[in-house]
Structure formats: C-alpha cells, structure tokens
Design brief:
Strand content: 15-25%
Number of strands: 10
Bound molecules: 2-amino-2-deoxy-6-O-phosphono-alpha-D-glucopyranose
Number of helices: 9
Helix content: 25-40%
Distance between the termini: 18 Å
C-alpha cells in the first residue's frame, strides 16, 4: 500500500484524476471501477474537464460501479445511475452501453449479483478500481463484518451509513436500507485500487484502515492485502496518520511518483 498526502481536497482530486487519465491514455480499453459519494464529485468534474479541454478519450472504456441502492430504479434522482450520468457519463464521450451498475430493481437480486460478477469477468476484470470510504470504514457498501472474500451481493446498510447518506434524499426516510455491492473479494481482484479520502471527518477511519489491524469490521483495511493499492488523502484526512513522515519519504523517493511531485 502507498499513502500519498496532498495539501488540499482539490490537490488530492487532481492527483487522482491525473492517475486515471494516465491509465486511460496507456490503455484506451481500460475497465474502470467507479465509486459514488460527495468525495468523488470534484474528481469527476476534473475528468470531465480533461475530456473537454484536452480530449481525454473514454470512447473505448468500460466502467463498473461498486454499488446501487435496492429498490431505486435507474431514473430515480437518488439512484447511483443518476449520480453517475449527471456527474460523469453525460459529460464525457463514453458509450452508455459500456457503463454498468447493478440493477437494484431486478426481479431476482441474487441472479443480478451473480450476473454482475460474470460481466466483470467477461471484460477481463477491473483494471483500476476507484474507492471512497464511508464513516463505518466501508468500501462500496461492504459494511462491518463483510467477509474479506465476499463477492457481489445484497447488504443491509448500518444506521451510521443511513445517517451519512439519507440527507441526500429529498425525504431522508426514502433512503433504501439495503444495497447491492461488489464484495471485498471482488474489489481485491481488481488490478489496481485507488482510494480517495478527504476531510477531517474521515481522519480517524482512514488511519484505522491504513495503520490498524486487518479486520472485517473495517472493510477498507482489506486494501492491506492488495498488491497495488494507493490511498490518496488531503492534509485534513491525514491528520491521524502516525507514520506520515514515512509516507512523505516514499513519495519523495520512489521514482514512480517523480512525475507527480
Ligand atoms: C457511499 C458509497 C461509498 C462511498 C461513501 C462515502 O456509502 N457506497 O462507495 O465511499 O458513500 O461517501 P462520501 O464521499 O459522500 O463521504
């Protein structure tokens, strides 16, 4: 795992956008795993800007989102499909037919989950998986006690997650209590993971995920098992990291990071 600390939220989003853009330039058929949430909004705005200003080409790319609420049809304003269309897909030249999210209104949800896994496999797996972290330490919607080998499935959301996300609904009561999410094992199978975390409210949980023990109570700690995981944080989210001097030293000395210093 690498931890890269940038000064501001904007700098952290910019570095993440640069890494994604470079991956896409290197492999135009990139299979990109995507996340939702407020943290991703600035990042998606930057990717859209790269498309508009420098012609970053998404036309051959494929995307798979981590999760979707159960019971919300795609056209619901609070669905993650709507979020993705509004924040990214409608602003870049991706073919919408190559953008996948689980269908939270599928008649047979178990079949939907198995089909989602099969579709990822059909595309050769995920090249780069983007992640945020929830206040419970979840990645995707892998709430505490999610098995470290779990695959795409239905999960009940914790009261903490419902409290975090329900203010985004016009009527907070309308927030579904369950979601389909890629499993921790699904995420760990991706070739590269980048977790973007910003803001003081995430400082405690990101320190636990990065420096604490590997535990299913904090599914983001599973990234410690991944051969190529990068955690990008701003100063506010880095505040509780005990070994930040070491992380900065790595950033200054690893040749791979030279173009970004
Ligand atoms: C939701 C998503 C997660 C995301 C989290 C954090 O719960 N399922 O993938 O990481 O929100 O959201 P925010 O960036 O709004 O803090």
């Amino acid at each position: 795992m690498e931890v890269i600390i940038r000064e501001t939220e904007n700098d952290a989003a910019q570095l993440t956008a640069d890494l994604i853009a470079n991956a896409l330039i290197e492999k135009p058929e990139l299979v990109l795993g995507l996340a939702t949430g407020r943290t991703m909004e600035g990042l998606y705005a930057r990717l859209a800007q790269k498309h508009a200003e420098s012609g970053l080409d998404f036309s051959k790319g494929t995307t798979f989102n981590l999760d979707e609420y159960i019971g919300l049809p795609p056209e619901n304003p609070n669905s993650y499909r709507t979020y993705m269309n509004n924040h990214l897909f409608n602003k870049i030249n991706i073919d919408l037919a190559n953008t996948f999210l689980p269908n939270g209104t599928a008649p047979d949800l178990d079949k939907e989950c198995a089909g989602y896994e099969a579709k990822i496999a059909e595309h050769g797996g995920i090249d780069l998986q983007l992640l945020g972290i929830g206040s419970t330490g979840h990645i995707g919607f892998n709430e505490p006690l999610s098995a470290l080998g779990s695959r795409t499935r239905c999960k009940a959301l914790t009261p903490g997650t419902i409290a975090q996300n329900s203010p985004l609904f016009d009527n907070p009561e309308d927030m579904p209590k369950r979601a389909i999410t890629m499993g921790v094992g699904t995420i760990l199978d991706s070739k590269r993971c980048i977790m973007l975390v910003t803001g003081a409210a995430k400082a405690d949980i990101v320190a636990k995920a990065v420096e604490g023990p590997l535990t299913s109570m904090i599914s983001a700690s599973a990234l410690q098992l991944h051969p190529r995981a990068t955690v990008i944080v701003d100063e506010a989210a880095a505040a509780k990291l005990e070994n930040r001097g070491y992380y900065d030293w790595i950033f200054q000395n690893e040749p791979e990071w030279a173009p970004y210093r």
